[in-house]
Amino acid sequence: MDRLQAMTAFVRVVETGSFTAAARRLHLGQPAVSKAIAQLEAQLGVQLLLRSSHGLTPTSAGQRYFERVARIVAEAEEADRAARDSTASLDGRLRVALPTTFGRIQIVPRLGPFLAAHPRLDVDIELDDRRVDLITEGIDIAIRIGPMNDSAVIAKRLAQGRRSLIATPHYLATAPLLDTPEDLPNHQAILYTRGGTLKPTFRRSDGTEMTIPLHARLHLSAAEGIRAATLAHLGLTIAADWMFQPELENGTVIRCLTDWHLTPVDLWALYPAGRLTSARARAFSDFVQHIVTMA
Fold first, then answer.
1. Strands 163-167 and 254-256
2. Which of 97, 110, 143, 275 could potentially form a cystine with 126 if both were Cys, beta carbons 3.0 to 4.6 Å apart?
């Protein structure tokens, strides 16, 4: 048994807790698995497993070895699958992290075709606005909106989205005049921060630029809160159009100062650094890219 096969045997023993169960999963005889583990221990010069009447558990050295080797085995298996048939239906489990509002509006309602194309694939979706730790939380792919300054991940830009100044017609009917960016200090802004001032730059096609500070009494830490406050006519906000797409389409909210433009927002797919990106994660990234391109 070569080194990778021995590593695979060790991973399966730790996962199942016995030589017999691991041998069954590997379609090997139990003596072959026991011998592979013994050879690994001899090569490394440490004991990897504790044997007792209750089964097998890793030693502290064995646990450290398992945490690293399990990733190697998973990546080797993923590489094998990709080489055999990159167009085959995917299987296994995919763990995805999505921003709550973007996921709820743009992704979850459109998952049907993706799931139908891969009937043997299970998908776990974490809807959360916080910046998750992909390695610690076992996330295969995260979708993130905004600037990218995280060196601990592999990042792929999927698209750029329009950002707009957005408000309800009801708010605008009762608020002060809004003809140019210079009128914004007279308005109630709803900001996606925990305090401070946002200073967006508005640009017009003739090259004119204005950077206007927005002051807000209401700050919210989640996009769902921004949406709720805006739809309750509490003020205007700056947001990616993706976040208000249904309301923009039915007229519940409208874009303001449409002669002026804001810097677009980037949409990213993030993968854990130091690991081979799985075919499952790549397929989901392509799926999201298709959705936002068609939106």
1. antiparallel
2. 97
Long-range contacts of 185-188 (CB under 8 A, 24+ apart): 185/212, 185/213, 185/214, 185/215, 187/235, 187/236, 188/216, 188/217, 188/218, 188/234, 188/235, 188/236
Mean pLDDT of the chain: 89
155-167 pLDDT per residue, tens: 999 999 999 999 9
Domain 91-161+266-294 homologous superfamily, CATH = Periplasmic binding protein-like II (3.40.190.10)
Running DSSP on this structure, what letter comes out for residue 214? B
* Arch. (CATH architecture) of 3-84: Orthogonal Bundle (1.10)
Residues in Cβ contact with 150 at an 8 Å cutoff, skipping those fewer than 6 apart: 131, 270
What dihedral angle (degrees, nearest 10) is formed by the CA atoms of 212, 194, 154, 135? 180
Q: How far is CA 145 from CA 105, 187, 228, 242, in A?
A: 14, 26, 19, 10
Q: pLDDT-based confidence at 135, cuts 50/70/90? A: confident
**Every domain of the chain and the residues it spans:** 3-84, 91-161+266-294, 163-263
Q: pLDDT band at residue 86, thresholds of 50, 70 and 90?
A: low
Q: How many CA atoms lie within 13 A of 191 on its CB side?
A: 18
Q: How far apart are CA 39 and CA 212, in angstroms?
A: 69
Q: CA-based angle 28:119:107, to the nearest 5?
A: 130
Residue ranges of alpha helices (H) inside the chain are 3-16, 19-26, 30-44, 60-84, 100-102, 112-117, 169-174, 223-231, 245-250, 279-294
DSSP assigned state of 189: B
Domains 3-84 and 163-263 share a fold: no
